[in-house]
Every structure is written in C-alpha cells, then in structure tokens.
Amino acid sequence: AHESMFSYVLLFALDDLPGEDFKRFKHKLSFSYLEEKDPIPWSKLKDANTLDVLRLLLEAYGKQGVFQNLPQLGPHTNRKVSLQENYVELLLKRRPDLPKRGHEMMAVERKHREMKNSPEDGPEVDLENLFHPYPEGENSKTVLLLGPSGVGKTTATWKFMLDWASDKLWPTKFEYAFYISCNTLQCGPKLMSAMEMILNSCPLGTVSMEDVLANQESLLLIVDGFEDLKLCDDPADTLDKDPHQKQKVVNLLMGLLKKKIFPKCHLLVTTRPMGVRPLLKCLRSPLLVDVLGFDPIHRQEYFHRFFQNTGQANQIFVLVQRNETLFRMCFLPATCWVIGSIFQQNPQAELLQNIPETATLTEIHLHLLLTFLGTNSKPSHLEDLCSLAKDGILQRRLVFHEEELKERGLDCYLTSDPPSASQEVFCQDVQVETLYKFIHLGFQEFFAALFYMLDTETTRTPYEDLFGDQKECNSKYLMLIHFLYGLSNVERMSVLQESWSFKLSKTEVWPELLRWVDQEAKAHSFKREEDLLELCHCVYEMKDSVFARKAMKNVHDLDLRTQLLTKLDFDALLFCLSAAEALNSVRLSGCEFGPQRFQQLLPGFLKSSEIQLFLCLPISSMSVFVCLPNFHRLNRCGLSPTACKDLTPITMANTRLTSLDLGENPLEDSGVSCLCEWLLQPTCPLQSLRLPSCNLTAAVCRPLSQVLESGSSLLELHLGANLLGDGGAKQLCQGLDHPSSRLQRLICMDFPQLLGPVGGWAWEGQLSNPEFLFWPLPRAADGSREATKVFFSQQILKLISEENGIIPELKWKRGKKYPDISI
C-alpha cells in the first residue's frame, strides 16, 4: 500500500484542480523545463486526462524527477526547484504554552534575539522526531506547527511527505499519508465526504478505502493552512461521524480535527499563530511546535544553495550578515529569496552596500522593494494595489482570488510570461493557481501603510478601522503602524516620490499617530517592555524631534531591562531619551555598551529621577559619568577603582544624589577610599551607599569610619559579601559609636568572629553563618543608644551596649522595648 501511495504523493498538488486550472497546468507543462529536460509536447497533453498526465510525467522525468520538483517561490508556478536538493532545514522548537497575542512576525524575530542570548531556551525538534515520545514521557498523535506567513510551514510538510514516500521517514509507522490544503478545500466543492476528501486526489484504484478505515493508527493526515478556514460553531456531538457521509467541508474538517472521524489517526496541522486559539478547541492534547525559519547557520546554507557560485554566495552572505537588522530579517525564507532574486537579476547590484548598518526596518524594506521592483518601475495602479494590501491586513487576509484582482484593475499582475519587474509583487498559490498573495508579508504591510500616505482624494478615509481597536493595533496592525512612522520621515517620502512619481502627505497621519500613542499610554501598554521598545522604534523611524517630544510626554518610565539587545535598539532608546523632557525612571539590564555609548546616553539619563543599570558591560572608565539623579544603580557594570577617581569630582557637583548602588563592581579599597573623599564633604547629600561584593577588605573600613565620624548624611551602608574581618568590624564600630554618626542601617556579612567590646558596640560569639544587619537608633537624651533590629542567619547574637550594660540574649517579645529580632 505504501508503494501504491507513491504516485499520489508525486501529484498531490494537481489532484483537486478545477477544469480551467487543469488546462492551464497542461499548457505550462508544454513549455516548462524540469530537471533541464525538454517540455512535454502539447500534442500529447491537449486531450490528456489526469491519468494520462500522470503517465506522461513519469515517462518524461521519472518518478523521483517529478516528485522532487516543487514550485519555487515566485510569481509563476512553472518555475521548479528540487525539494530534495534545495530544502534547507528549518528551526523547530517545542512550545510549552500558547503564543502571546501580538504581531506574529515580530514575535518570531524577538524569539531569535532571545535565543541568541539564551541558546538553551526550549528543546529543538526535527521532522524525524515530531511524533517521538519525549524523555518526560509526553507523546501526542496531534502535532501543531505554528509560524507566520512565509516561515516555511508548507515546505516542511512537503519535505515530510517526500521523506515518507521515499522510505526515509517513518517507513513503518505510517501506511498512508494524505496532504489536505485548506486553500484547495475553500475553492472546491461545498459538500464532500471524508473518504472523498482524502481519496479523490489519489490515482484511481491505488488505495483501498476499506484498508484505510481498518488501519487508522497508521494513517497520517496533514492539514495545511488552517487559518484560511472560517470555522463553524456547531457542537461536536452534531458533527456526522460517518466518513462516507457528505457534509459541508468546514464541518467535515472539524470532524477530522476533533477525531470524530478517523479517531485513531495521527494529525499534523499547520497554522499561523492567529488561528491557534480556535484550533485548540478542536484538537486533543496537541504538541505545539514553533516553526522559526532559518537559524544563522542555515541562512548561510540557503544562499549557498541559491547560488551555484560559492564565491558569490559567500560574498552576499557576508554583506547580509554585516547589517544586523537585515540579517535578523533573514530568519524568514521569503526575505532570503528576495535578496537572492535581486542579485540573480543584477549581480552588480549595490543594494546591500547602500543600506546603512543602522538602517531601520522601514529603510530596509524600502531599499529591498525599490531594488526588487526597480527604482524607476512604478507599480501599476499603485493606489489600487495599496488599497488591496490595506484591506487584506485589516481583514486578516493574505490570499486573494484572481477575480478580486481583476475587479480592482490589477489584472496586469496576472499575465505575461516571463513577468515584468512590477509583476513580481504577487505569487500564485501552489495548489490553486487562481489564488495570489504578496510575495512577502512585509511588502503587503508596506503597501498598506503607503495607502494612508498617498495624497489623493480617495485615500482620505477615516482611521477608525486602523486605530479604533486597541487590541488589534497591538497585534495584526502593529507593523503597518510601524511603517506609517517610517514613511512619515521626510527623507524617505522624498525618495519614494522621486522614484515612483507620486505625492505623499503626512498631514493627516501625524495627529493620528500621536493619538495612537496617547491611546496606548492610557491603556498602560508602555508598562510592557516589548511595547515600550516598539514605541521607541516607531518614534525613531520618523526621526522628527518635534513629534518625538510630543510623543514622549506620554512616557514616564523607560523600563527596558530585558529588551535592549541590538544596535538599533540602542539608537532608538538614545533618540527617545534625547526627546524626553523628564522621566521618573530609566532601568536597563544586560546592555553591552561601553564608555562612548554611555556618554551618548548621558544627557537623557540626567532627565530621570531614578536610574538602574544592571550587568551593563563594559563601562571601564567613569570619565564619561553623569551628575547623577537622586537614585542611581550600577550593578555589575565593570567599574574599576579608576572609575571611582573619575566619579568623585562629578558627584561633588551633584546636589540631588541621595542613593548610590555600586554593588558587584571590582572597586577595591582604593576605589571606595576615593568615594570617601566625596562623602566627607559637608555638601554631600548621599543617604544610602550600597557596596556589596566590591572586593573590599579591612583597609577600607577606616576611611568609612571617618565618614561616619564626620557627621555625614549617610543613613544606610551596605557592605555585604566583602571580607572585612575582625579588624574591619572594629574600625566600623568606632565610627558607629561616634556622637556625630547618623547611620541608621548597616548590612554586613563575612565577619568570621567578633569578640570583646569595641567602643560603644560589641558582639560576642562565633557566627556559623555570619550575616547580620542592625539599625542603631539616634541617641536618647541620656546619650544612650540601642539597636532597633538585629538580623542573623542561624545563631542569636548577644549585643553589649556600653552605656546600658549587657543586654541579655535577645528574643522576640511583643510589647517589650527590646530590640526587634528576626530569624
């Protein structure tokens, strides 16, 4: 049975073609070159039926030759490439939970950025182990492949079918495998039975229906493009379970997914993330797998397979890799194909050399589109094309019927072989040649944004459909809005107007974009780091300082602790910081910027009341440092003792700095001693100083004690995780006991042993886990002072107060005025 299915697998793309499409296919076979062999003569194809065409194909090209060729991405499906030879492995990762709502392409791009920093994030899978039980015992008969348009979901299912039919994959697990295209179902008969759905596409007599029903456990159904279906709300118990009973195609597919029909079969379903939630209502415990496109290694492999010349492939890959943003975009196979096609058309193209390394997403799409279509090749019927793109995005449609293109006057994109440059905007659907989609989702979103910028009477439409629904703005419209910001840039408007000879206007768009920022701020969207970063990128896209100042009035806190990962992220942050008038806080973490970048951020930092930097490496010199606001945190930023020398004169001029956290920097004794010079100044406003894990020893305790004795404003001192020893403790006690000391809180660790009274303070006992904190109260009228709190890890401490005598072992007693104890 497996061998008899081979012919079906070879011809699955033809099986349900309507009459006109079948004639069109035969016509193309008469001039198409597969495997560099001559086309099949039209005289043989003219009156051939399905079986005749199957025989002619096998005779002309052989079994492997026919099946291993698949339609190449491009406007016309008569172009073929070898799937076996040209397939590049896609990155597949198990997903433990549902994808978050948001723009699906941006979500995958963000996932790639996160994986760069955390390579072990989530287990990888491949086609071979999709249905394997996992170490934790989890196994599922239903696998759901999730991914945005153009990421390679359909190609992955074709490769699965090819490897299965060639006995390279699951030769014994699946006796039957059927590919079901949801696009094809939408265009086919309205009523159909389950058996007709899976058998009509097979050559007559090759499959026994009884055998399929009797061997459901060895049956695999691949349902491709689920998001193209409009589901019904019929309860599961109303769906017909009879595989021979004709019913609505949507109901039939629902019955298959809910295992009402073929309950023991295996399912492999592909969908865009937007279709996953309704789909999960149909599936039984599916295994979720993200299709993430190409990882960096396989992006290089793609260009090597695209170009026959190894030297040319290496050259192009190096150029792509040099541009950080463009290289990230190449996770999408469609982007790689566009770049390859540009160089294939014109090997001398200066495309990549002309794209700045810090180019924004709009700049890159503009460069790609102009080069791909031709700088002087204005797309035909541009306004109608942009209107179609806009309607598709707003209605969540990526696929368009041939009739719709004709009705809009876009039939010029459907003819001519080979196509002109402007006709490369669309590509035909592989299964149904009367369906078209934009060659790249980014191009559709770009044209959709351009619709709102065209300076014509017909495009002056209300913006409620775009900005009215806040939830939709944050998901399917986000990239469109991003492009609106980018196209509102004066320089880009000029380039487009000059290249394609039409007028653009931002007069109406500008207030709408400001209104969108205000709407997002009221919805507290900017409290989410990814949304805040996207705002920064949008504002940076426009590069208009007046607009930026108005937009940034809605932002009070810049919290990007997990988001600042690329050079473009940094440039966007820098631009928005410069535009902000005042901020409550700026929080960054894990940012790899050095002194030069830090100096650029400095003016923006000064506008914030609170700054927290964590693991921002390497800041090796403080010569670029800042007159700090009232709270500043610089944890793990690689600050050296020299940095403290540079910091001292700057902080002396600062009258607002009340809290400073320099923890986990190798400041050493010499660095902190320099800080003490500033702390000794009468005008020093610092109240809290945190120095944990700064490689300090007992030597630093003397200058710190002098600071306490000087009557410094310091109220809190954190010296944890430093090896200060007994000598250091004694020095600190002298400062604590001084009448001028104002210190309210001291945190220390790693004092191995403190014996005997020192000044007004002493500890007795050996600390098995030496970590403690105490707060001395201000002196009473009689000059005495007691500890208000003592924290310790394992052993109760005994405090001795010189003025009050020995206090017994302290325990928690409610209502008593003893020092509080926390264990």
From TrEMBL:
GO terms for cellular component: canonical inflammasome complex; Golgi membrane; microtubule organizing center; mitochondrion; nucleus. The keyword Signal does not apply. Keywords: Activator, ATP-binding, Cytoplasm, Cytoskeleton, Endoplasmic reticulum, Golgi apparatus, Hydrolase, Inflammasome, Inflammatory response, Isopeptide bond, Mitochondrion, Nucleotide-binding, Phosphoprotein, Repeat, Secreted, Transcription, Transcription regulation, Ubl conjugation. The keyword Ubl conjugation applies. GO terms for biological process: inflammatory response; innate immune response. InterPro entries: DAPIN, DEATH-like_dom_sf, Leu-rich_rpt, LRR_dom_sf, NACHT_NTPase, NLRP_HD2, NLRP_innate_immun_reg, NOD1/2_WH. Independently of inflammasome activation, regulates the differentiation of T helper 2 (Th2) cells and has a role in Th2 cell-dependent asthma and tumor growth. During Th2 differentiation, required for optimal IRF4 binding to IL4 promoter and for IRF4-dependent IL4 transcription. Binds to the consensus DNA sequence 5'-GRRGGNRGAG-3'. May also participate in the transcription of IL5, IL13, GATA3, CCR3, CCR4 and MAF. This is NACHT, LRR and PYD domains-containing protein 3.
